[in-house]
Specification:
alpha+beta; 47% helix
């Protein structure tokens, strides 16, 4: 049972570190995210947990290793496939914003402000600055990008 506890604990540490630290810890990010730190951590955690459950229920050792290997590999494949799809979906294509129109989401001054641009690819607010003051809700046009 000790090997399953060690592998499961290592997997949990990799999984939590990968989830909390994100790209800083994702050393295993190969094959377009199919073999990411999250996928490896999930596979090792499930391997350890299933082995402990089988042996804790007085199951045979061969069944523990067989089931743990199968569930760990299935978990690695499933989480890897999901991670790969999410990474491909989050790729943003750059587009020109000069000339786009929108609305001031907050008052815009020389120091700070936000605008929401009217474009299908513009789902987030952007920081904005101007020489004067523009009230929130006023129409704006992008004339320069820094």
């Amino acid at each position: 049972m000790i090997p399953f506890l060690i592998v499961g604990g290592l997997g949990m540490a990799i999984l939590l570190s990968s989830m909390l630290l994100g790209p800083l810890f994702d050393l295993f990010d190969v094959f377009d995210g199919a073999l990411s730190g999250t996928a490896v951590g999930a596979g090792l955690t499930l391997f350890g947990a299933s082995g402990v459950l089988v042996l804790g229920s007085s199951g045979p050792v061969w069944l523990a290793y067989t089931l743990a290997g199968a569930l760990g590999a299935a978990s690695l494949a499933a989480v890897g496939a999901m991670t790969s799809r999410l990474q491909k979906a989050s790729v943003q294509i750059q587009h020109e914003v000069i000339g786009l129109t929108g609305v001031a989401a907050s008052p815009i001054t020389g120091a700070m402000g936000e605008v929401q641009l009217s474009h299908p690819r513009e789902i987030n607010k952007r920081m904005a600055f101007c020489e004067g003051v523009i009230a929130a809700g006023a129409p704006v046009t992008v004339v320069e990008v820094h």
